[in-house]
Write a structure and sequence with these properties.
This protein is mainly α. About 75% of the residues lie in helices and about 0% in strands.
Amino acid sequence: MSAPNTVQRATLWALGLLERYRYIKFGIVGASGTVVNLLVLHFGHEYLFNQIEAGYNKPYFSLALAITLATLNNFTWNRLWTWADRVRTLEAGEVHPVSLRLLGMEFGQYVTASAFGSALQYVLTLLLSNTMDYRLANIIAILAASVSNFLANDRWTFKRHKR
């Protein structure tokens, strides 16, 4: 009888930790974006852009597509989960319909705030792919860019609004 209580307490503790530490949520969303990034990067480099990129032996176009789709994935989940308490559609406890204008503005801010990290990821991946597999180089570059992406989006895109 005590085992379920221990499991329940541990589960509630873990959920509480997630709620208190936004960076953990950001990391989980980032992990999903990393999966999207790697899948698109691999598919693009090995199949979609194979003929174009074979001459360069670098994933130039595949990497740009992978970063774009991962950014879209991350914006969606960060807006819905990581910073759900800060989205501008929530006012005085009431949920208002999302306007396309507001969504577009937030997405523009997110992309702008993430631009440094995206550029860093792009350049680091290409540089590191000289000495290692491009997928491993991409993972290292993603980790390097994640801190700047979190700080920029926490302070600007999803900043706290004065009530």
